[in-house]
Give the backbone structure.
Amino acid sequence: MSTVGIVGGGQLARMLALSGLPLGLRFVFLDPAADACAAAVGQHLHGRFDDQELLERLADASDVITYETENVPASSVALLAQRRPVYPGSLALGTARDRLHEKTLFGELGIPTPPYAAVDTREDLDAAVAQIGLPAVLKTRTLGYDGKGQAVLRQAEDVAAAWQRLGGVPLILEGFVSFQREVSIVSVRGRDGAMAFYPLSENVHRGGILHSSHCREADPSTALARDYATRLLTHFDYVGVLALELFEADGQLLANEMAPRVHNSGHWTIEGAQTSQFENHLRAILGLPLGSTDPLGCTAMLNLIGELPASSNAVLAVPGAHLHVYDKAPAPGRKLGHVTLRSRDPESLDGGLRQLEGLIAPDGR
Ligand code: AMP
């Protein structure tokens, strides 16, 4: 029986384990939170991602190691990689950790991006604003997620306040894209180089946090998104699930960011695809054959943010609804769970989604 070590013990690690238990896998997680929600489904090593002793213990306990976040220090990955196979590899992780490295690579691989410039000083910021124009988005290069570490600059007066709030760490200024849609492609590559792609997800963010994802089978942008994902998977000699987030604007796809891990916009695959992104990630890192990524009807996912619905009964009474609760303490803006809705046809999906939207917490509206 193989044991999978995961750096991080949040909901992504928990869902990886939930998909791996039927395959006879065991799990061990390293996480600094005493109440890490993956602890319910495996062994929890409680401590920081750079704790040498715990990293050694994680390696000792694991046959293969992966992670649920890109915010793992490079030195920790190097230590683990000396002891056990670590997938995805450190090149993909190091690139995804830094928005500037990520955008530079996209450019090198011919994947279009919004215009951007590196910003380290106030002078850089003024020069970047002059070059890119407004509106624009100022972002921290590392450690940002769910809209954190970002400021939208709409007019010249916003520049000083944004610098005040975010300055002092390496930043990137991006042109603000008036996109028609946000989409993502969740892809997977096995140890043998086999690749598979889920149908495109069409995503709606509110306040920088993912609100909902729709599986879009036969979407006209699929071929281009797959092409871009393929370039990344091949470049990294990648093993595991990789998500690429894209803005669709005026018929173009512009890359926003990539995630070298299972991704929130792929949660619908648990009930909505032949093989979930979680199971396929595990299959990939263990050198097992990849499972089919074919969809199973019309599917959408709604995140539960900040607060859980007052009544699980009401959610589960919606035909085709599946409730996932992560067992995390509620906090504003925190992802506490999600609901997947699977229907036979688009009309019943829309009807069910309207019902669900009425039941979920105000934060998530
Ligand atoms: P990120 O953390 O980069 O994924 O940003 C979170 C969300 O903010 C995105 O999904 C978009 O909805 C929005 N956003 C980020 N960057 C831009 C941009 N350059 N132009 C327009 N919207 C953006």
Q: What stands out?
A: The chain has a mean pLDDT of 96. The radius of gyration is 20 Å. The first helix runs from residue 11 to 20.
